[in-house]
Amino acid sequence: MEQPCIALGYRWFPTAASYHIERALRTIGCAVAFVGLGEGERCGYGETTSILRVVESMTDIPDFYLWIDPAGRYFPTEIERLPIPTACYLIDVHLGHWRTEAARFFDVVFVAQKDYVARMRQAVGHDQVYWLPLAAADDVHFDHTLPRSFDVGFVGNIARAHRQTARQRQLKLLAATFHVNDPYRHYTPSEVGLVYSQSKIVFNTSIAGDVTMRLFEGAACGALMLTDAVQNGLADLYRPGEEIVVFNDDADLLDKVRYYLTHDQAREQIARSGQARTQAQHTYRHRVQQIVATLTAPTLRQVAPMRTASAAEQAAARRKIYTHLHMLDALFDQEQAAGINPALRLWHALPCLVRRTLL
Fold this sequence. Notes:
This protein is an alpha/beta fold. The chain folds into 2 domains: 5-134 and 287-308, Glycogen Phosphorylase B (Rossmann fold); 150-282, Glycogen Phosphorylase B (Rossmann fold). Helices cover 41% and strands 12% of the residues. The protein has 14 helices and 10 strands. It has helices at residues 17-27, 51-56, 98-103, 117-124, 166-177, 189-197, 213-220, 234-237, 250-261, 264-281, 284-295, 311-324, 328-337, 342-358, and strands at residues 5-9, 31-34, 64-68, 86-90, 108-111, 129-131, 150-153, 199-204, 224-228, 245-247. The strands form 2 sheets. A 6-stranded parallel sheet has the order 2-1-3-4-5-6, with helices on both faces. Helix 3 links the parallel strand 4 and strand 5. It is globular and about 70 Å long.
């Protein structure tokens, strides 16, 4: 069967899961038109460009549109008016209630965290909401067969927002006791694979009980994955104690690192099992196959609530989304188009201005 053409919208940057998904879509034969927010060497469109106008100007109209979170300062304008089916992939659904508003603009909703499927179905009012876990990119996350010189490896976000979390505290404990890579520097996608291929153990801890990309990436590179105990379908993805190892608190974390560093056979057996599971079920090729199967199903319906919502309801939802994404220009454009007087426009924009200044 011929693969579909997908218009793909996201804020481009090379370490994003979105870019891994784009490459995987191309790998399975889909035609992909990038219609998101360009940056650096990647050409794209501005944050206020109408996606309806973009699609209408294309020589070959796409079969579907897919928007991928995290969005940066990008949410597709006039998405509710697109004549083709639309879908979104909400990755950080565990952070920020604005994503519930965003989901209502799309016919199909994929969420990365299993525990949020039911509540998202309730919020959007239809059943075209599906669990789509994160994954490993098999073109960068694989065992490079390097000496495993790091006791523990970690690549991830240690930004200001994470400075007071368990992640920061536990990384300090690990670095004080074991040989760890530099967790504070930026790594390219290919460097992530190299770090994990040089690590005996990859440490993972969530921010809000989420199943992270790191879990799949470390396992794909052949390291033992040591992760915090979370829900969100973790036990459906890997067998704890056989394919990954779970820790409960700081003391348990340190004890398990010590144990598996001194029990090579046990560590390597679990690592091999986790890697095999990842390669068989948890790459982005597997994920995009699920996306394509869902979007090409004959039962697909165009049921985004915002397709039939009033102009006032659409504007209120967008105002909330734009505020959380710091999309000040888009917010001003919307208010001006609606004929709102300048004083009220400024009042509506004030929360966005504050967030953009402080965050």
